From TrEMBL, chains A, B:
Residues 3-72 form the HTH merR-type domain. The keyword DNA-binding applies. The gene is txxe 1510. PROSITE patterns: HTH_MERR_2 (PS50937). The keyword Chloroplast does not apply. This is Transcriptional regulator, MerR family. Gene3D superfamilies: 1.10.1660.10. It comes from Thermobacillus xylanilyticus. InterPro entries: DNA-bd_dom_put_sf (IPR009061), MerR-type_HTH_dom (IPR000551), MerR_fam (IPR047057). Keywords: DNA-binding.
Amino acid sequence: MKYYSISEAAALCNIPETTLRYYDKKGLLPLIERDEAGRRMFSETQMALLQTVICLKNTHMPISSIRQYMAWIVEGEATLELRLDMMRKHKQKVLQEIAMLTGYLPAIDEKIDRYLKQLEEKTT
Amino acid sequence: MKYYSISEAAALCNIPETTLRYYDKKGLLPLIERDEAGRRMFSETQMALLQTVICLKNTHMPISSIRQYMAWIVEGEATLELRLDMMRKHKQKVLQEIAMLTGYLPAIDEKIDRYLKQLEEKTT
DNA sequence: TGTTGACTTGGACCATGGTTTAACCTTTAT
DNA sequence: ATAAAGGTTAAACCATGGTCCAAGTCAACA
């Protein structure tokens, strides 16, 4: 089984090493293995979990919730419903955020169009 | 011309008064008028500008950039191109954000589906 | 007249999400 | 043996976006 060092993991995920250590400290990377020298070893499984962390972080889930989610994963089957519920709620949040951003696009376009017109008038 | 007090403005925009004062302090509400007692008076024009501030803030433009944009508005015609450029870039940012969030939806759906299946298996 | 309610201020405080620092520990290559 | 490369830690520091507090002003009403 291949293991990645923290620098390899960081490079693969395109994220600073310091951030990975910070996530570990915050409990976002449970069950992370260490070698004899105490260095973090990222297994393929860990890399997959890390991808999940990054997905949740990029979709603006707070660190504290990501920690809770990862803790539930470690707990196993008993927390399936909790995780399902959390993901469903999170999906709704993401959809709402997309809707909000999309909803503002016309207002932004309006300003762009107005400035274009005004610039045109200025030069004519 | 109708003027709104800070509490009315706050209520209309559904935003705390403290945040409005904070925005003013940060230079996001230029040209705001005051009555004899020093109280802020929001004209219809100010309310429209405030809507713009809220639009930009909700679409994640940093306070410092919003301040720059508002300062350009005050400067007038000479800054039309700068404002146009800023809005175009901002629109691209918003589109990218929408794309990123949308791009993560399948990963979230996958988790939801997986949990649903696992729960089904558990009860069968 | 006094007190109530809405407003003002500067500055302290807070939460979030990292980033930096300083001192230290292992391998490995020279 | 020693230095460079890559890793460790706790704790301090930072930026962002507010939020809260104490002390004061002002207008109106009992």
